[in-house]
Amino acid sequence: MRTKVAIIGAGPAGLLLGRLLDKAGIETVILERRSQDYVLGRIRAGVLEQGTVELLDKAGVSERLHADGLIHDGVELCFDGDKHRFNFHELIGRTVTVYGQTEVTRDLMQARDASGAKTIYEAENVSLHDFDSDKPKVRYLKDGVEHELACDFIAGCDGYHGVARASVPAGSIRKFERVYPFGWLGILVDRPPVAEELIYAHHERGFALCSMRSPTRSRYYVQVPADEQVQEWSDDRFWDELRRRVDEETADNLVTGPSIEKSIAPLRSFVAEPLRFGRLFLAGDAAHIVPPTGAKGLNLAASDVGALAEAFIAFYAERSSAGIDGYSARVLSRIWKAERFSWWMTSILHTFPDTDAFSRRIQRAEFDYLRSSEAAARSLAENYTGLPM
Ligand code: FAD
Ligand code: DHB
Questions:
Q1: Is the separation of the CB atoms in 355 and 332 below 8 Å?
Q2: Contact at 8 Å (CB) between 281 and 155?
């Protein structure tokens, strides 16, 4: 079998890259380790930047997003019960769209299936070969039979634990990492959201986030220790803890119900450099991880593959390698901006094991500064709603 671009991973990065290339007439094959239902069952991000929405428009997969997505003008930050609304639209004229990663993935899968482009789910033992030559190939097992896929390029869109980054010789890659001593316990519930916009709450007992998927479906998170077990959290325990961490009005308005999903996500900052190794390119979580506090993970994955698609399109249309040569430096500049913002949001909003009285006052001072300085609020708005390349 032969294709132009072999894409490893059918998460949002791999599917969006596949779709953008498909629209430009560039053939791709996607190899995904899991089943389609498994990929669709993962509950992850919920906030889309304007740039991500524009890319999904360009990919022709945004009809449902525009019909069902919720446009939010701002967010609320709550510090020890004091709440302040940041109106991004008023500050800088930009908004965000609340539309779940699961739905983005579903829209992309449907478009791919309709176009006839090939996706191989449950591809086992994927391995990458000869990407330092001009004849790269990918081998995999499907239903116990070994296959080889020859290609011009390989796009590693297989997430943090994937095979693509792991295939690069250790001496050719540098990794920058910070693991946080806590995770987020999240629940999904078929009850109306507690407020019209997202509430990010700092409390001595830990961070909490009130988010949503639709006018009838809510998503809530509380910070928990890194080694916490999800079985130890009954729904009642979750609701009690959430109420303690938010302001009184929010606690009183909370509409609780049985959870339909409950899971813990670890928090990590990670960047690999560079992101190109001969004919192998890394994009999305395969290349970097941000802690979820800044709502950047999915948006970064989208901007990476937007740039990578442009680079491949220029290569095939003009035989120009300028785009593929410049890919790594171009996207890393934006990636580090998102890393900085996500790290900063995480630092001010969470309680760390070593948070002492001084650090607590500094966190409070950051919040007071954001509340009192228009320049600081504008900076928050610019970073949250989208970052320049
Ligand atoms: P993924 O979505 O991870 O997709 C990679 C795909 O590659 C997967 O389908 C995987 O099965 C496949 N794969 C892996 N290894 C192989 C292999 N060897 N062979 C073939 N296929 C392979 N971001 C936010 O902004 N807010 C959040 O609340 C949030 N919550 C998250 C919770 C969790 C548990 C995780 C893991 C991430 C969360 N994120 C969140 C981050 C966001 O979801 C990711 O940034 C986004 O999914 C990145 O997309 P991706 O396509 O790069 O990677
Ligand atoms: C959601 C997740 C985030 O990490 C975030 O910052 C905002 C919203 C969510 O899942 O809804």
A1: no
A2: yes
